[in-house]
## 1
Amino acid sequence: MEDKIHKGQKELNERVKDARLCTGCGACVNLCPYQRSYEDKVIAIFPCDIDAGRCYAFCPRTPVDLEGLRGRLFDRGDLTPEIGAVKGYYLARSGSAKVRSNTQHGGTVSTLMSLAMKEGMIDAAVMARRDESCLTAGVSESDPKTVGRHGKSSFVVSPGIAEFNRIAKEQYSKIGVVVTPCQALAYAKMRMKPLPEKDNNIDKLKLVVGLFCSWALAWEPLLTLLKGRVDLSLITGMDVPPVEYKAMHVFTGKTVVDISIDDVKQCVRGACHYCFDLTSEFSDISVGSAILNEPWDTAKGWNQVIARTALGLELMELARKKRLLEFREVPEDNLENLKAASMNKKRTAVKNLRIRTHSEEDLIYLDKDDPVFREIIKGG
Ligand SMILES: Cc1cc2nc3c(=O)[nH]c(=O)nc-3n(C[C@H](O)[C@H](O)[C@H](O)COP(=O)(O)OP(=O)(O)OC[C@H]3O[C@@H](n4cnc5c(N)ncnc54)[C@H](O)[C@@H]3O)c2cc1C
Ligand code: SF4
Ligand code: SF4
């Protein structure tokens, strides 16, 4: 792979933003005065000629040694090629019906963030907030009682790492973050301190809770799609049920508006077509919906959870001990189905990257010699 770090804003613009690979993660924002987030994009408001910038080094779409990251962050024996490290795998949900009613699925993410803060594992949490126009931004909380108010998923990307970059300069010493997989990768790169003299207070990052993510939506096409069908100011949430529903559900108070999934897929952010990670592999704990052999109305009240690190396992077991989370038996084929779905996403990313480069082996930001992608390339 080419030199991974000694590049700056110019190369970030050319290779990531102009190439439409920018995921909107926010890792390059609030490091310097020159990068800003605007709507669901990140823009450079002033040119910068630094030749080794944190923006390029932290970006999840610049080349990185993924195998090196896996080796540094996880126990080797826990690593799987399909979904990364697995120390524990659960079906869980919040033990509180009140919490569940204000969260996306089982409320596991909100419960874990709140518990981590109550236990002093973190003193600030970075999450996401959707506004009335469906734009999403990072938001931080330092009171365990208010962490839960930022539940539910926004399907427009949040430049949430910009908020971490901002508050990491403040008085907090232990920060927890809720992230999409591309953001989890950016934080993993930051943790490696590629430019040690500018480490960005990354040692304050104490907990990474990752979301499963198949894709996110670009803001402008989503607005056009919703216009005339839903009053944006009434939207209380959105969800994507299993494929057989062929729809995205948009919740407005007591009604649910179904939007055709084929139309929704036209709004997927371009960068997501090149994304290899379904399950936030570079997190302490990853959480997604539960796909069960039962109606979505009941299945959607549960989460699949992967504990990946000792910290992740400790937090899950604490939540069990304190009865903050409820657990149910995991059906036999669940984990295998998740692994298959995850491999599909990796194969699609490799296929799309090869179509772009017209090359069998040039995967732009992915390493063709990485053991996971090597196998996919060999498989054709
Ligand atoms: C863009 C996107 C795509 C997703 N795709 C899938 C998928 O394909 N399959 C699947 O199983 N699950 C997917 N999820 C995850 C799923 O929607 C739930 O977040 C997850 O099941 C956890 O549910 P919960 O009830 O525990 O979450 P909650 O307790 O409601 O907590 C959700 C947390 O996510 C944060 N959040 C919301 N939107 C964002 C965002 N855009 N970026 C970062 N953080 C955010 C909130 O602030 C909150 O802290 C996706 C989520 C997002 C944001
Ligand atoms: S992917 Fe993230 S770090 Fe890279 S250019 Fe986009 S917002 Fe910046
Ligand atoms: S699909 Fe990948 S690039 Fe797109 S938002 Fe999800 S994690 Fe980020």
Note: The radius of gyration is 20 Å.
## 2
Amino acid sequence: MPDYRLDAEHEALRKTVEEFARDAIAPVIGSFYERCEFPYDIVAQLGRMGLFGLAFPEEYGGMGGDYFAHCLALEELGRVDSSVAITVEAAVSLGAMPIYRFGTDAQKNQWLPGLCSGERLGAFGLTEPGGGSDVAAAMATKAVLADDEWVINGTKVFITNAGTDITSVVAVAAATGPLDQGRPEISTILVPAGTDGFSVSKKYSKVGWSASDTRELSFSDCRVSADNLLGERGRGYAQFIATLDEGRVAIAALSTGLAQGCVDESVRYAGERRAFGAPIGEHQAIAFKLADMAARVHTARLAYYDAALRMLAGQRFKKEAAIAKLVASNAAMDNARDATQIFGGYGFMNEFPVGRFYRDAKILEIGEGTSEVQRMLIARELGFRA
Ligand SMILES: Cc1cc2nc3c(=O)[nH]c(=O)nc-3n(C[C@H](O)[C@H](O)[C@H](O)COP(=O)(O)OP(=O)(O)OC[C@H]3O[C@@H](n4cnc5c(N)ncnc54)[C@H](O)[C@@H]3O)c2cc1C
């Protein structure tokens, strides 16, 4: 039976992030959210705390910690605000991690110090207008090798962190060869921000995550050096599958945080708000909602701890990552709905964070693989061709 208690180091980190999120993010993030403004100053403070470098070795400017530490930090950030949490998640899990896992020494030395410090952000461009869940088969972005340069043409949609003032690099998945067994040869190419032929759209107008940066990317005869290939040519599919397996654990942690934030706010409110002569938490319908919400958080947390600890132990964790993502994103969505109900009319007001949680929860069942995709992955691990 694995031991799910946090050791002293992980607990100290969790507590530090909890306090920072409560004291420095919670009081101000609502106004960034309403203005759809990226919170540069908060990101810089998180960078100085080392939160972008938790999972990377010190030689690249990281903190020498592990991916579980990254997940714990995301849970505590998600408990207060998801725009900030997804900015860290995407920068680390999708931006920096593929470079660390698959990059050459030169690529790691060039990009990781900036990304680990949080002074620069990375992004991962996979999804396209024609397909997200089935992006490999639908891959329309093409890169052709000519005169020792990759020439990239195509469009990516919904890319997190791609257009901030501090974005330094986007890892772009592109078709680099003909179709074989239903999908093209896919490779990942690092495209520095500001490269000629690479442009980012205006920020999307989104339902939630309003203080985070999400853009459409266009590549029009965009040329980068042949050396910008990440890892081996043709390994792009395997790279993004591995990246997303890990990323799902991180999204599960963020989702657990949002679900816990709903419990925190609702328990406090249900103890204060009175109706029919008693605090509303004394009415069984509300008390049972709170109980269900606490049970969902507990289950979600155990699921992501389990997936993360298997990952760190070098064990297969694909099924557990998909289960954690499925369970935790459902918990976030259900808890956000219940918390908003507990707050009554105030739940619909921007003055309270539960309305923001409600708007932020839905994407957790969609991004980095929808809930249907998670079920397909779990079913495949059970031996069915789903
Ligand atoms: C705010 C935001 C940030 C994002 N950030 C990034 C990012 O940084 N990088 C990046 O590359 N992408 C990013 N994405 C994209 C995201 O990962 C995709 O939206 C997601 O994977 C779903 O793809 P899709 O939108 O094309 O939906 P589709 O794949 O078109 O799916 C539509 C629906 O059909 C269902 N479906 C599809 N196939 C099946 C099937 N075989 N069986 C049952 N149901 C099926 C899906 O579950 C879904 O409900 C982001 C998206 C958003 C909204």
Note: The CA atoms of residues 2 and 102 lie 30 Å apart.
## 3
Amino acid sequence: MDSMPSDQTYRPVSFWLDTVPDPLAPGEVLPGDLAVDVAIAGAGLTGLWTAYYLATAQPGLRVAVCEAQIAGFGASGRNGGWCSALFPASLGKLSRMAGRDAAVAMYRAMQATVDEVGRVTAAENIDCHWAKGGTVQLARSATQLERARAEVAEMREYGFAEDDLALLTETEARARVGATSVLGGTYTPHCAAIHPARLVRGLARVVRERGVKLFERTPVTQIAPHTLRTTRGTVTADYVIRATEGYTPALPGLHRAVVPVYSLMIATEPLPDSTWDQIGLAGRPTFGDGRHLLIYGQRTADGRLAFGGRGAPYHLGSAVRPSFDRVPAVFGALRQTLGELFPAVNGAAITHTWGGPLGIPRDWCASAGLDRDTGLGWAGGYVGDGVATTNLAGRTLADLILGTGSDLTRLPWVNHRSPQWETEPLRWLGINAGLRTMGWADRAEARTGRSSRAAQVMGRFLGG
Ligand SMILES: Cc1cc2nc3c(=O)[nH]c(=O)nc-3n(C[C@H](O)[C@H](O)[C@H](O)COP(=O)(O)OP(=O)(O)OC[C@H]3O[C@@H](n4cnc5c(N)ncnc54)[C@H](O)[C@@H]3O)c2cc1C
């Protein structure tokens, strides 16, 4: 990146940042040492939602956010735009951690969070192309159908009904998503398709209007009790919040806290109505299928398909670099998979390719917490489900900081401590073996029609 970044520096980062209407030139940098009440590292959705709820609850509070690049530079400005109730830890895992009622409360809180994001964006005039069309997960093989049935059965065991997650027949699934090889699927209404950069940049505007000091191009070099050290000065505060997700391992003392795993995306040109007549996706439900190596898509407000998936390699030492955002082989595989799903899209131009790091904790359980003695707080480890979860994190951190006892601060992910990842090279070996096994298992399942034992074993090793 050049030393005088402009609007054009950040447009190529993702389709979303390329098409956000606001200017992207960096704002004010930290002018020198500063004392505030709350200091936040990272201006993605975690940092900005936390600042938003603090500034809203207590307008006089002095809140500063220090961001290495610009607000929304990280995963928050690059993701698939599923504002969903998905939480990376299963009901079973949460139940073992904290009991059945706590597990159910966590999932219900996530459902309510989707609506909270919709409420705030409407109230604050953030036009993020909100369309609460739910999610269709297609089952495109017998084994995927088996997994869909098992998922619905697990939800029923915990008291979630048809209007939380429904099993779809082949005809019902095809009526929503006109993909090939559809045998059935599931549908949940608890998801909105959004334009993520419009959300995160809109939120940055709103927090600035509420008096939050947002410093861009201000990398944090160390997080310590009551202190954020940056390249431009030191911020001292009663509370210091880490909101750096996939970039966290670069901070001193935190290199094994989460691993940055890359997710990559492509976007087509706007598709003609005749193609949409075949694909469907009326009401803009987000969609995926039941394979192990995740794929996800949305119909954008301007009539494109934005489509992504995992499979890019993990890099030794949890390295994060701009060049890792682009892996031609993964873009090619995404293009091919999209064409397999929707042959009508095969001739369409791919106008954008991009990617970014998400944060995976060792036990795949996101967390938000605060140590009142040191003033250190954090939220993250959302795996690929952070768009809505960051909002719950922001409300929760605001309640913890302000000492407001609430239902949110009693949820089981609060103050949960995930174990550290293994040291290298074990970490590199394990994660890349896991990624390869998932891809291999999908191919084997498609060939044999039988569920892959290797994928189950690897899934357990990785804790997902
Ligand atoms: C390609 C992709 C697709 C995804 N799709 C979805 C989806 O459809 N739905 C969903 O729910 N989730 C999805 N996710 C995950 C989701 O985007 C993230 O979980 C969420 O955005 C995390 O927000 P955050 O604010 O915690 O982290 P980020 O948005 O990554 O923000 C962290 C910020 O901290 C800054 N930073 C890092 N280090 C420093 C430092 N030392 N000093 C100062 N600032 C620093 C970064 O520049 C960045 O702006 C996806 C992620 C990716 C990459």
Note: The longest strand covers residues 350-360.
